[in-house]
């Protein structure tokens, strides 16, 4: 069996596993409430039945990525990550900015615009976009590799379009008629808000997503949306309406967080992913904080409803200046937490410098199966500074158990199986090592390094 055939077989096996029916794990009152919430379902769950997996350009390219770099990355992604389910390639912020050069923003941008106040790819960076073609030629090449194509966009309408007072397609209104110039992003100068009470406002958003659909966009990460949430809720709703009318299935991901948990019902009605924190980078304090956030959001996680702990800052980062600051143990903790809590898995590192250790971390099929196919995911609160999660496997019988040591020294973590509702006899398997460990006994105990994690699969013994 050659490499491509073997990779395709692995991908099909994972997808088949993810499609199997599974029984919920009810672990106490919190688990029961979580299952009741999930059972209610999310609108448009078919848009994202499993946590999206892919790659995003921000952690490695900032706002500078070009068409050539996108295609080079897409080819690597199709070869090395697509067989394991990573299928969404997203061009992040500033693709419309001809002079983007780093992680900072031009205070007076002159972005590329079409005649109807909509941002288009900067032709000096994306030459195939010339002649009004936009991202369509690039998306077609990405699709030909078997990948989906995503873009980052900002809330609102371009400040430069308002200054030029460009017309809104199909209406008698202009950019100034719909702009809310008092609604501005605190960290990016490109846009102003859209006042959804004004005539032409929804038409603008409808036209925006019609354009994206015509380009072949499959995924939109929409920024400056979730904070402050209530102030931006009308534009969240406008984007969701526009997607429903655009004629193409597009997954909507809202950014940045922290999205407020009390707005969970609203956000999952209108988006399939939403950030639960501000930008996440390779810093242990940031990673430690994500435990509580994912625990708080657990009841709202399920098909079409994915609380997003943000991208995976692994490998080469920051315009090639450095490798991740996470230790190997912290990298395993990151992947284990994102897997058991079923956060979307979006790689952020530069794939052109993908090393063997990072590739192995991203593509362990037993870990990915937890992220893509487990159910009844539930945190357990057993001891200070120890985090424990469990879930059911795709077959409804196996159990997954994730153990985390969040202190700065090594320690033994011990979990009685009865504490996670696993009574009877169980066989134990180390998911990271992909090795059977024999009979589990009445408890699972492991010595974990500082900031370390373990992930096990338990199967009932006949």
Task: List descriptors.
462 residues, alpha/beta, TIM Barrel, Immunoglobulin-like, 2 domains, 6-stranded antiparallel β-sheet, 14 helices, 21 strands, 22% strand, disordered N terminus, disulfide bond, EC 3.2.1.22, signal, Alpha-galactosidase, hydrolase activity
Structure description:
The protein is of the alpha/beta class and 462 residues long. The protein has helices spanning 3-18, 28-39, 58-61, 67-80, 136-144, 159-164, 175-178, 201-215, 229-245, 264-270, 284-297, 328-340, 356-363, 365-373, and strands at residues 53-56, 88-91, 148-154, 157-158, 179-184, 191-194, 219-223, 251-254, 273-275, 306-308, 316-317, 322-323, 345-347, 375-383, 386-392, 399-405, 411-416, 426-430, 435-439, 443-448, 453-460. The protein folds into two domains: 41-363, TIM Barrel, CATH 3.20.20.70; 382-460, Sandwich (Immunoglobulin-like). It contains 14 helices and 21 strands. The strands form five sheets. An eight-stranded parallel sheet has the order 10-9-8-7-3-2-1-13. The protein is elongated, with a radius of gyration of 22 Å. This is Alpha-galactosidase.
Task: List the SSEs and their pairings.
Elements: H1 3-18, H2 28-39, E1 53-56, H3 58-61, H4 67-80, E2 88-91, H5 136-144, E3 148-154, E4 157-158, H6 159-164, H7 175-178, E5 179-184, E6 191-194, H8 201-215, E7 219-223, H9 229-245, E8 251-254, H10 264-270, E9 273-275, H11 284-297, E10 306-308, E11 316-317, E12 322-323, H12 328-340, E13 345-347, H13 356-363, H14 365-373, E14 375-383, E15 386-392, E16 399-405, E17 411-416, E18 426-430, E19 435-439, E20 443-448, E21 453-460
Parallel strand pairs: 1-2, 1-13, 2-3, 3-7, 7-8, 8-9, 9-10
Antiparallel strand pairs: 4-6, 5-6, 11-12, 14-15, 15-16, 16-21, 17-20, 18-19, 18-21
Helix pairs in contact: 1-14, 8-9, 12-14
């Amino acid at each position: 069996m050659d490499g491509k055939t073997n990779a395709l077989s692995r991908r099909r096996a994972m997808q088949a596993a993810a499609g199997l029916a599974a029984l919920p794990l009810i672990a106490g009152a919190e688990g029961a409430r979580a299952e009741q919430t999930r059972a209610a379902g999310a609108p448009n769950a078919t848009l994202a039945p499993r946590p999206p997996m892919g790659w995003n350009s921000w952690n490695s390219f900032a706002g500078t990525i070009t068409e050539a770099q996108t295609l080079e990355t897409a080819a690597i992604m199709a070869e090395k990550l697509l067989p394991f389910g990573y299928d969404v390639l997203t061009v992040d912020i500033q693709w419309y900015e001809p002079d983007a050069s780093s992680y900072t923003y031009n205070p007076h941008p002159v972005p590329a615009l079409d005649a109807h106040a909509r941002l288009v790819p900067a032709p000096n960076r994306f030459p195939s976009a010339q002649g009004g073609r936009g991202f369509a030629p690039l998306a077609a090449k990405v699709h030909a590799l078997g990948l989906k194509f995503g873009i980052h966009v900002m809330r609102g309408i371009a400040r430069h379009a308002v200054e030029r007072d460009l017309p809104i397609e199909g209406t008698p209104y202009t950019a100034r008629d719909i702009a809310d110039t008092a609604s501005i992003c605190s960290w990016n100068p490109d846009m102003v808000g859209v006042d959804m009470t004004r005539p032409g406002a929804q038409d603008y958003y409808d036209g925006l997503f019609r354009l994206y659909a015509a380009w072949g966009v499959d995924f939109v990460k929409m920024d400056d949306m979730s904070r402050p949430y209530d102030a931006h809720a009308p534009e969240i709703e406008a984007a969701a309406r526009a997607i429903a009318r655009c004629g193409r299935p597009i997954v909507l991901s809202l950014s940045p967080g922290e999205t407020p948990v009390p707005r969970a019902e609203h956000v999952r009605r209108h988006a399939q992913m939403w950030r639960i924190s501000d930008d996440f980078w390779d810093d242990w304090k940031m990673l430690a904080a994500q435990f509580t956030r994912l625990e708080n959001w657990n009841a709202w996680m399920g098909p079409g409803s994915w609380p997003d702990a943000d991208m995976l800052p692994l490998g080469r980062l920051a315009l090639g200046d450095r490798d991740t600051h996470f230790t190997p143990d912290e990298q395993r903790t990151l992947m284990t937490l994102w897997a058991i809590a079923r956060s979307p898995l979006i790689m952020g590192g530069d794939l052109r410098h993908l090393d063997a250790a990072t590739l192995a971390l991203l593509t362990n099929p037993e870990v990915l199966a937890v992220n893509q196919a487990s159910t009844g995911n539930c945190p357990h609160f057993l001891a200070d500074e120890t985090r424990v999660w469990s879930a059911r496997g795709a077959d409804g019988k196996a159990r997954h158990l994730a153990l985390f040591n969040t202190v700065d020294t090594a320690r033994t973590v011990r979990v009685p199986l009865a504490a996670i509702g696993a009574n009877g006899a169980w066989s134990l398997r180390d998911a990271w090592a992909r090795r059977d460990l024999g009979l589990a006994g009445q408890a699972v105990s492991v010595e974990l390094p500082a900031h370390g994690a373990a992930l096990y699969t338990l199967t009932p013994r006949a």
